[in-house]
């Protein structure tokens, strides 16, 4: 019996930058005392036009076919060990991107835009804990 020849399928899987930004934004928000930068009024208007949301504000992503480079602008709560939190952001973001997309994060830069007192931070970034 002759073996059937398999046909090569030309295929491609790509991700919009917004998808990667959202994954990274959600992963970053899981780190205690760190939040992606909140949007201003003008960014809210732009976001409505471009389809961005609050989880992608302050995050830039360069997405290639196999790799991603990220720049994050964040707000920190006063008293947080920022270096330790940064390590956790890197770990969570790279793991989430790899798990969900198969892409490797080859660069992640985090810029701290602001430090807020505990009360102000908690008021702005209330997390429901149930």
Automatic annotation (TrEMBL):
Protein name: Alkaline shock family protein YloU
One matching Pfam family: Asp23
Species of the source: Breznakia pachnodae
InterPro entries: Asp23
Family statement drawn from the similarity comment of this UniProt entry: Belongs to the asp23 family.
């Amino acid at each position: 019996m002759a073996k059937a020849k398999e046909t090569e399928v030309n295929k491609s899987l790509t991700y919009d930058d917004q998808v990667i930004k959202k994954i990274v934004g959600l992963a970053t928000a899981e780190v205690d005392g760190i939040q992606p930068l909140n949007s201003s009024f003008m960014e809210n208007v732009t976001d409505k036009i471009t389809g961005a949301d609050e989880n992608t504000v302050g995050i830039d992503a360069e997405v290639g076919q196999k790799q991603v480079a990220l720049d994050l602008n964040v707000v920190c709560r006063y008293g947080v060990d920022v270096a330790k939190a940064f390590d956790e952001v890197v770990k969570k973001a790279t793991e989430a991107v790899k798990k969900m997309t198969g892409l490797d994060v080859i660069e992640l830069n985090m810029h701290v835009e602001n430090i807020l007192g505990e009360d102000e931070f908690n008021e702005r970034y209330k997390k429901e804990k149930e």
